[in-house]
Every structure is written in structure tokens, then in C-alpha cells.
Amino acid sequence: MKQRLFMKHHLRAILSLFLLCASSLVMALDARVDRTTLPKNETLQLELSGSFSAFNLSIDLSPLEKDFRVLDNRRSTNMQYINGNFEAKTTLTVTLEPKHSGLLTIPSITIEDESSAPIELKVTDAVNSISGDPNQAPPVDIEVSIDTTDTWVQAQVLLKIKLYQSVKLFNLELQGIKELQQLGLSIEKIGDNATYQSKRHNINYQVTELNYLIFSDNPGSLTLPEFIFEGQVPLRNSRYGKRVEARSKPITLTFKDVPKDYPSATWIPAKGLQLSDDLAETVEIKQGESLNRNLIMSVYGQEAAVIPDTPQLKSDLINVYGDAPELNNQITAEGITGVRMDNIALITKQPGTLTLPAIEIPWFNVETAKTEYARLPERTIKIIPDASQISNIPAPIPPTVELEKPTVATEESDTSDNEALPAEASHGPSLSTKILIIALFITVIAQGIFILKLMRKLKERAQKPLAEHKPVTESSWDQPLPTDFVACFRLIQKALQDHNMSMEALPEHAQTLIDQFRMNNYGSENAGNDVSFTTEEREKLRLLLKEFFDSQTQQAQGPSLYPE
Fold first, then answer.
1. For residue 493, is it within any domain?
2. What is the pairing mode between strands 30-33 and 228-233?
């Protein structure tokens, strides 16, 4: 017994050592930067992560000095205990400043036995909006830009605001976001604020960058309001300090209406649309088995809520069951990407060949100003009869045929020969016919058993989600709504999912309340803070929701079978 335990631990040690050695051979140095596009007079952070020693003092960063100034570097180590082994990961953070503009490459860096991959950068010319004279340059400045000045209704516009300060300020304030909402625009803040250094005419500034998305449902031209960045400079002999401010330049933005030649379909203005599924071009499946199809649609430049439904499947060969779609929004510095995933279950009923038709989704490319189509080709499903549902039928035994000896026929033997013929030769079904009838009878019985099993399976499938699903009850609208808007919004979404409806099904007054509160609180610079409903707003919305969902419940239930 001791020898067996010793061998077991010995083998584990050898296996761990082998995996450690193998992982070290294929380990690569991970390199990443905080941004890939920047002006020449701004800095960026380069992170190199790997399994090299944090005490290695001979790291060679000289390949970077060709195109960059290495301003600073610092190290950190993260230790983890995984599967009985300690794993150490060291990160080297390097602050770089480009020496010139153009397309630059951060070269491969080698530390010990690990090497990083090169990284491409786009460095633009230096931007000097602040005077280089320290006695005249203001301590604050602001830059406002948009990625396009001419686009279409409901298309995203990326708004970028950069706040500069050369001294430490207090009571900072940014004005202009709420004024955008008053123009009828939808504003949504994306990502966290980025902070970095910028050097302009030998003056160092700390830059805070904010990014927003702008949408408009109405065509026309408008001028973005003036953005004001202000704060107070602390003074020695003053309790309140000196207030300073910077104002942005006006920007004109035009939203064009939907083109007249756009097809009769959901209007999707975007930078790209991708449609895919996980089925092969031809699929073979046995009768009675189920097949899952995941349809994924990604729209670059739109929220997932605007992605339309895909066509419903109908066929006598299958039963189709679909779950509620999964909607996700991916936020990056380039904007928003909406992703919708539909999980569809296909349960085969009878053998045959089924062709799932091709799916085409029209969308409008805002970069080329053309209507394009995302197409998913047709899929073929071959449903094979399930042999296990049919009882094993023994192969029919052919009748034995005996060769008779030739005899000389006489007149007296005619009568005796006819009498010697078997009865089956003169009338009634043959033996092979009887076997065929029996086989058909058994086949019918087997098909009946299969249909009963399939109906039982479908009944269990239909009942299972109902047992696990916890819907929002009618009493939910008899209680005051949550004071937190996010919690209230999730409660409304849950109730809509229980009724298989979207947000557009709500009464117009309820939608107006929700949209107005969302824009007033989540489209400003205070986005992400805890914001509460007022008592009057919550009560008005609760009454609208109660009346709406009570009517939906009565329509779904019909007349009561058990009157009170």
C-alpha cells in the first residue's frame, strides 16, 4: 500500500514538472498599449507581461529608443496558487513618448527566453491649442470633436471631450451635456475616463478624456452647444481660489433621413453587420432527436435592441422551439456593438429532407452610403429513420423446393396428380405475402410507440421551463417601485420577458417616462452614479405598468375555470 501511494505521488510530481517545462517552452511575452492612435506630443503606456523574474535588472529596452523616448518603467508581480503549483506573472509598465509622427512600430522586446509581438501605432502631428508661454497660457483648456459631421438618423456619432489642466484644480465642472439632451439628442457615456499626460510647447498638462455616443431620431442640421470646462486654482491668500474656465468651439452636425430606396425592412444604419450560425451546410440527424441552432447577429454601431427578429421556421418534419434572445452591448473606445443571439431547438418528427431557407438582413453602411445585405446561406437537414424504434423482424425463411424425379405421364395419372397438389397452390395468400403483412403490422405498432414517446418528450420539454421560470406576479405592481432606476428597469424587463414582449409594447406614456428619466440621469457626466426616482415619478409609472400587465394577464388566461 505504501509503495502504491509513493508511486502515485511520484507520478504526479513528474507530470507537474513536465507540464511546467512544456508551458515555459511555449510561453510568450504579452505586450499591450493603452491606445494605438495618439498625437506626437502625448504619452502612452506599454505593458509587458510574462513569467520573467521581477529582479532581472538587465532588461534591454534600447530597441524602443529608435522611435520613442523611454520616460519611465516600473514592475509588479502577481503570485497565484493553481492546482498545487505557484505561478508568478511579472508586468513591466513602460511610459513612452513618440519622437516623430507617422506609422510607428513598437518592436519585439525579448526578456530572458520570452519575446513579444510588434505593435503598430498611428502617431499624428502635435496639436498645440494652448500657448507655449507659461505667463500667458491658461491653466485649463478643452477640445471637443466628433468622428463625423454628416450622417443618418439613428446612426451613432462618437463625441470625444478632452479636458486639459496644467495645475491642480478643485471644484471642476463640465457644462454642455444637458444642453445636448435639450436638442432632442440621445446621449450615452461609454467607457471609463482616460487620464494621461500631454506636453505642449514645453508645458505639461494632465488630460482627462471622456467619450459619448450621440443618436438622433430626427433629420436635420444642428449646432452642438458650447462646452465649458471650469475650476478653481488654489491661492495662498484666498479661501475660495481663482476661478478659471475654457470654452469649446461650435460644431455643426447633420442627420440625413432614411434613403427612399432603402427596402421595406428595419432601418439599421451601422458600420458593419455580421450574421452567422453554428450549423454545417448539410446536417444528418436521426428521427426523434433534437438539434440546436444558434443564430448570432452583430451590428457595429448600434445597440442590440434595434436588431430585428429572424424569420420563423415552419415545417411538417420538425417542431421549432425558441428561447428569448440574448441581447448584449459591447462598449469600446470606437463605439458600441450590439450582439443578439437566438437559441432555436429543432426536434425532428418524421424522416425526410428539410431545407432551412437562406436568411438575408438588409442594413445601411454609413461609411459607403450604400444598402448592403448580410446573408446566411440555406442549410439542409437530412432526417434519417430511427431503426431502434422498429422491432427486429426475423428474415423470412424461403420455402424448401424439392426437385421431383421425372415420370412418364399417363392418362390414369392425371387425376391423381391434381389431387396431390397442395391447397396453397390453388387458392389463398402465399407464405411470403403473409410474412410481409406481419412485418407491416409490426411497423405500424412500432411507429405508434415512437409517436407516444415523442409526445411524452415534448410534454416534458414544454413543462420544464415553466417549472424553472419564476415570473413577475401581479402583486409586484401593487407595491411601490424600487427607488433605484436600474433595479426598476430590470423589473420591467423581466415582466416583459414573461409575456414574450419587448419594450416597444409598453404604453407610450410609460415609455416616455422611462426614456425621459434615462436621458436626464444616464446621459450626463454623472452616468454610473446611484440615481433615484422621485416619489411622483415612481407612482405614475407604477400605475401605468399595473394597468398594462393586468390587461395582458387577463387576455392570456381567458375566462376563469375556478370562479371565486
1. yes
2. unpaired
